[in-house]
Amino acid sequence: MASEHKVGDLAMVTLDCADAKVSSEFWSAVLGWQITASGDGYAMLTGTGAALGFGAIPDYVPPAWPNPNGSKQFHFDLAVENIDSASARCVELGATVPAEQPGETWRVLLDPSGHPFCLTKAENWG
Question: Start and end of every VOC domain (predicted)?
Answer without folding.
Answer: 9-122
